[in-house]
Every structure is written in C-alpha cells, then in structure tokens.
Amino acid sequence: QVQLVESGGGLVQPGGSLRLSCTASGFTLDLYTIGWFRQAPGKEREGVSCINTSDGLAEYADSVKGRFTISRDNAKNTVYLQMNSLKPEDTAVYYCAANPDELQYYYCSAYGALEYNYWGQGTQVTVSS
Q: 75 in helix, strand or coil?
C-alpha cells in the first residue's frame, strides 16, 4: 500500500522549532520529488519547500527562506522539514507530497501541486504564545 505519513506537528511558542517527518511506505522516496505544502484556515494551499531527485537541491518559499530546511534520509525512507524561528503566521496544516519526477525537472519548484501523486494526511502546526 502506497502511503505517506507526516508527524511532528504540535503547539509551539513564537521563536520555537519543530521538525516534521514524512515517511513513505510502498515506494522509495529518493526516486520522487518531495514537496511540503501548508494550508491555513481560510487560505489557499501554498508550497513551502521541495527537494529534487538528482542532487538534493532544495527550494523554499520566500516566507520561510532562512528558517526552514528540507532534507532526506534515504535509509529511513523519510523526508524532514526542520522549522526554526517559527512565527504565528506559520500556523497551518502541513502536508508532504511525492511527485514521480517524470519530467526530471532540476528545479522542483517547476512542479505544481496538482502534479504530486501522493499526499499525506497532514499534521497541524500551531504557533502561539
């Protein structure tokens, strides 16, 4: 069964940190472009970060650049999103998604959300004092 499972969300104070995990079963993550997306109440889903398949190039939305880091652990079939210096506006449900990279884009941001085949169930991140 193909599945993505996120974990690591929770409640954190402004300035704090969380590490989200995205673990795959039924397929090998390192063959896929992986993206992290988020959706806050009343807002559209937005791309947060992605990592390509070729050399691990990571890209970030301007709103999280310098604070978030995406990484792969192929041995664990897991992708992480390390989130530091969290702000209240980071509050959202965070989703990871996998794209088979059929077009072999070097820059993973070239893929839109609709091109991601597999999605996790989401994990809530709340940043509040």
A: helix
